[in-house]
Design brief:
The complex is a heterodimer of chains A (200) and B (653). Chain A is α/β, with parallel strands linked by helices. Chain A has an eight-stranded mixed sheet with strand order 3-4-2-5-6-7-8-10. In chain A, strands 1-9 form a two-stranded antiparallel sheet. The longest helix of chain A has 20 residues. With 653 residues, chain B is mainly β. Chain B is built from eight helices and 34 strands. In chain B, the strands form five sheets. Chain B has a 22-stranded antiparallel barrel. Chain B has a five-stranded mixed sheet with strand order 1-6-7-4-5. Chain B has a three-stranded antiparallel sheet with strand order 17-22-23. The termini of chain B are far apart. Classes of the chains: A alpha/beta (200), B mainly beta (653). At the A-B interface, α2, α3, α4, β8 and α7 of A face α1, α2, α3, β24 and β25 of B.
Chain lengths: 200, 653
């Protein structure tokens, strides 16, 4: 009773109409987005080409492959930023007679046969787990998270202004039995593993 | 009041739906990598994979991005019109360029007059918008509006126009109640060389512009320019010829000096003059000059400091109202940004402005006192806190201001932004902003000597708004960015003119704060580039407003209607298409819903531009504007805006 008298505005509350509108519009809006397929931005198209290049500058031990014809597998762990661009980059390419395949998963176990694993930003919190899972295995981990290489990753992308740069942790690649060409080492920034004991 | 639980239940379930949809979307974006388009043979990946590592490392990865990168994460209702979009639209003045912002309401009155606002209250005295050109405020304290005919720049040198709808009070200060328009020109370094352009047409009878940009040594750059145009009169609603033909001439310069890597000095100025053809007894005239200097010092990527000073004089003699106005402004501003700890960025600043306004008139009505000096002191402080790095950002700040009419004004705001993935941001904000009194609120008298019929606004206080905003920005694919902004505004102390002695009426009337109200709306905008050669941008705005008398006040409905005659729906779409053989075909369409009171029919119209780049130096263009009808009205008090056409030749050397 009182509520109707004290309310000086129009009888139907605009606030309420606003809310109804808001909800209807927002749901429509987001719904419309579902039809949009993901495409990669320029940055990740360039990074896809970097990954392809890395594969050419790294020698995996024979034990990394199930047989001599097995393809080189690039795994993408987490929320894929590449879209089609990585698939397009490696399509119809061979390195030392091996074709390349791209595999995606949210779980490291699904990618344990891969020779290279790109660790997406979405996995930032799980890095220690991931590094533990591939430790000593012939796998190159590549990331794009600050501190990735110091904490136990192989190669990490970083930005220098508008340019893409990368850093390498040779201790990690050596430990995993990978041979990294000196050309790659000379182009990247060398980093060392951070001393342990620093908690999250 | 309604029981809040009802809102909350609906509200909560709505929010939940939205969040679910959003997270589902981001999950979908991750898993679905099936693009519908077949890879173009020479698309990015195909090119990059042929490059060596060192070539890849030399690539600049922000290609002249058409979607400004940061925009997809900006937690406010900001929209950007680039200089390129303005050029391709065929717009030849700032007001027409502002039509490209879907969150602005632009109505042309005649050849020299426009009413422009954001979030409603569009009227002859639209007064809730702050407009700046290169950091120089151009709204007038005379009526808190903008004389759009006096605001011209060489559009060739326009970098971008940022349009913030919603309160910008915390950072920008008074008058930024419903929006801020920030017009930014390119630096002198970016405008080197010769530019000559000229043309003629039906409404825009003739125009010409010349600019030269040069350098002295490696760290001093300058440009000088001059331009002129003549615009024909428009017909009145009864079919007779209007007395509104306008011509303007303007010149100016800008100098950017980089004494070292961390210091930038800018000096720029303009002067202009022109008249509108009122004829009887003489033409109305306007002119002005301004000069601005700015020093910016960069300490680091997160920290800088800038000091800015300007002086601005603007003068007009309006024959229709017989009011002359000469306003001289001196302004000093200081701003400093620095990080505090690893998670906070502090932005603070202070400013002082002196405005000398003289309004001699022969009319029986006018401003009392005729001349007034006004001082404005301001300071602001804002803290941007990264709650969870790259995910949750909280911004809190306030502006404190002192003006001669309403004293101290506090304009705080809080803003929270959540960036669940790199490409989407959900944000919300609550802000308070004020529209401080202008001379037309405080000093307006009919007649100029007692006894008064209208006796100014001796007790007029600021108009206030509390704005609640919620928005969503997303860039689902590189080629598409979308922004949704919604708002709910609560106004208090809105302008009225009523008998001073409220009980029983009688004279004099005074200007008071008799209204309160609410408005709400939705602003949707987007940029889409389906192909390299084809760009689309545009948006839709829904707006609704209710104003009513506060207890003891009785401003009539007809009078309330004069405070803002706003369309409910509005739509803009701009298409820019690059054709083979260096042709460009550009289309801009717009729809504006009917105006409620006084009534005015809705309209749809469009502009077309056909450009041809003969070589890198010479460009020819033909532009048709408002092509849909022979003529249309954009304001009940306006003149007929005709269909028009012009051609231009441009040389860039």
């Amino acid at each position: 009773m009182i509520e109707n008298i004290s309310y000086p505005g129009p009888s139907r509350s605009p606030m309420r109409r606003y809310m109804t509108w808001l909800c209807a519009v927002a749901v429509l809006f987001i719904g419309a987005l579902r039809v949009q397929a993901e495409a990669a931005d320029t940055e990740h198209q360039v990074k896809a080409a970097f990954l392809f290049n890395f594969a050419q500058f790294i020698d995996w031990p024979p034990s990394a492959f199930t047989n001599t014809n097995a393809p080189i597998c690039i795994g993408i762990l987490g929320a894929d930023p590449f879209g089609e661009s990585l698939d397009e980059t490696v399509r119809d390419e061979t390195i030392h007679g091996r074709t390349l395949v791209v595999r995606r998963s949210r779980k490291i176990e699904d990618l344990k046969d891969c020779q290279m694993i790109f660790v997406c930003r979405s996995e930032k919190k799980n890095l220690d787990e991931i590094f533990a899972a591939v430790k000593g295995k012939p796998v190159l981990t590549v990331g794009e998270t600050e501190g990735f290489a110091e904490r136990g990753g192989g190669i990490n992308f970083y930005r220098d202004g508008n340019k893409v740069r990368f850093e390498i942790n040779p201790a990690v690649t050596r430990q995993n039995g990978l041979r990294v060409s000196s050309e790659l080492l000379s182009l990247g920034r060398i980093v060392k593993s951070e001393t342990k004991g620093k908690s999250e | 009041m309604h029981f809040p639980g009802i809102y909350f239940r609906n509200w909560f379930s709505c929010l939940l739906t939205v969040l679910l949809a959003a997270s589902e979307f981001s999950a979908l974006a991750q898993s679905s990598s099936k693009s519908s388009d077949l890879p173009n043979a020479e698309s990015g990946p195909a090119i990059y994979k042929k490059m060596s590592l060192s070539e890849l490392m030399a690539l600049e990865i922000t290609t002249a991005s058409r979607v400004p990168e940061k925009l997809s994460q900006s937690p406010s209702a900001v929209q950007v019109i680039t200089g390129e979009a303005v050029h391709r639209s065929g717009a030849m003045n700032l007001a027409d360029a502002l039509r490209l912002a879907p969150n602005l309401q632009v109505g042309q009155i005649n050849s020299y007059g426009w009413v422009i606002s954001s979030r409603g209250f569009n009227a002859l005295f639209a007064n809730k918008l702050l407009v700046m050109i290169d950091g120089r405020s151009v709204y007038t304290p005379l009526d808190a509006g903008v004389f759009w005919d006096a605001q011209n720049i060489l559009l060739e040198d326009l970098d971008r126009i940022e349009v913030v709808s919603g309160p910008g009070g915390t950072l920008w200060g008074a008058n930024a109640v419903n929006g801020v328009i920030n017009i930014i020109t390119k630096s002198a370094k970016e405008t080197q060389g010769l530019y000559v352009s000229g043309g003629a047409g039906s409404l825009l009878r003739d125009f010409g512009a010349v600019r030269y940009g040069g350098s002295a040594g490696t760290n001093l750059f300058y440009r000088v320019y001059a331009q002129r145009f003549d615009r024909n009169a428009m017909d009145l609603q009864d079919g007779s010829r209007g007395a509104d033909a306008l011509n303007m001439s303007q010149g100016g310069f800008r100098m950017d000096y980089y004494p070292s890597e961390v210091n930038t000095l800018t000096l720029q100025g303009d002067f202009y003059g022109g008249d509108y053809n009122t004829r009887i007894p003489t033409n109305s005239t306007l002119d002005g000059q301004n000069i601005l200097g700015r020093w910016t010092h960069t300490f680091s990527e997160e920290s800088d400091l800038s000091v800015q000073m300007y002086a601005d004089r603007t003068w007009r003699r309006d024959i229709g109202s017989t009011i002359n106005d000469e306003l001289t402004t001196y302004d000093l501003d200081f701003q400093h940004r620095f990080p505090l700890g690893s998670r906070q960025t502090i932005l603070w600043g202070a400013g002082y402005r002196l405005m000398k306004d003289e309004t001699p008139t022969t009319s029986f009505l006018g401003f009392v006192p005729e001349d007034r000096n006004m001082q404005l002191f301001s300071g602001f402080l804002q803290d941007e806190i990264s709650l969870v790095p790259e995910r949750w950002k909280f911004t809190i700040g306030t502006k404190l201001e002192h003006n001669d009419f309403s004293g101290f004004e506090v304009q705080p705001s809080v803003r929270l932004a959540w960036t669940p993935t790199e490409r989407q941001t959900i944000w919300g904000a609550i802000s308070r902003a004020v529209r401080s009194p202008s001379r037309i609120d405080a000093d307006y008298h009919i007649p100029k000597t007692p006894p008064y019929f209208v006796g100014g606004g001796p007790d007029f206080d600021s108009e206030k708004v509390i704005a609640y905003e919620l928005g969503y920005r997303v860039q689902p694919v590189q080629k598409l960015s979308l922004s949704l902004a919604t708002f709910f505004n609560q106004y208090d102390d809105v302008y009225t003119v009523e008998p001073r002695n409220l009980v029983g009426g009688g004279f004099p009337f005074t200007i008071q704060n008799g209204l309160e109200g609410q408005s709400w709306g939705v602003e949707l905008s987007g940029n889409y580039q389906p192909f390299e050669r084809w760009r689309l941008r545009g948006g839709y705005t829904y707006f609704h407003k209710d104003l009513w008398n506060k207890p003891g006040h009785s401003f009539s409905d007809d009078n309330i209607a004069t405070l803002g005659n706003d369309p409910e729906h509005q739509f803009v779409l701009q298409s820019m298409l690059d054709l083979p053989n260096h042709f460009q075909l550009d289309l801009t369409g717009r729809y504006v819903d009917s105006l409620p009171k006084p009534e005015l029919a809705s309209y749809f119209t469009f502009d077309v531009r056909l450009g041809w780049q003969y070589d890198e130096h010479i460009e020819l263009a033909i532009v048709g504007q408002n092509l849909m009808q022979e003529h249309h009205l954009e304001s009940p008090i306006g003149q007929e805006i005709p269909r028009s056409v012009f051609g231009s030749v441009t040389v860039r050397w």
